[in-house]
């Protein structure tokens, strides 16, 4: 499994602590440094079963500058959101854990991290 983190994020650090305590085998991706491509974001969204606006941190300064809260949330708007997430990775909700079974979770709670662990 892989976990996308921002080391400055307390929820990311908590997820890593739990993964370590459970002896999980995982790879860390510091997504602000190793920025996911639009294609990778599409893949993670498919694994999450979510839309890009579902994983966008709309409270970030760059989100306010871009005006994302006013953007449409229809199928035709999807690529605009994905491109924004790739161009401004700080907008991506974290941590995101991709499980070996092909699914993913946004691991903001202990329950979500444990869910990912259960998926392998």
UniProtKB/TrEMBL annotation:
One of its GO terms (molecular function) is arsenate reductase (glutaredoxin) activity. InterPro entries: Arsenate_reductase (IPR006659), Arsenate_reductase-like (IPR006660), Thioredoxin-like_sf (IPR036249). It comes from the Bacteria. Keywords: Oxidoreductase. CDD domains: ArsC_ArsC. The keyword Oxidoreductase applies. Gene3D superfamilies: Glutaredoxin. Belongs to the ArsC family. PANTHER family: ARSENATE REDUCTASE. This is Arsenate reductase. It comes from Streptomyces filamentosus (Streptomyces roseosporus). The lineage of its organism: Bacteria, Bacillati, Actinomycetota, Actinomycetes, Kitasatosporales.
């Amino acid at each position: 499994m892989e976990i996308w983190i921002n080391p400055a994020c307390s929820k990311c650090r908590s997820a890593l602590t739990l993964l370590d305590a459970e002896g999980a085998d995982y790879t860390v991706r510091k997504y602000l440094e190793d920025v996911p491509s639009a294609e990778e974001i599409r893949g993670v969204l498919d694994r999450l079963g979510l839309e890009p606006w579902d994983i966008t941190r709309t409270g970030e300064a760059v989100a306010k500058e871009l005006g994302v809260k006013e953007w449409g949330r229809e199928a035709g708007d999807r690529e605009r959101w994905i491109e924004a997430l790739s161009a401004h990775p700080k907008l991506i909700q974290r941590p995101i854990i991709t499980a070996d079974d092909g699914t993913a979770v946004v691991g903001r709670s202990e329950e979500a991290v444990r869910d990912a662990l259960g998926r392998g």
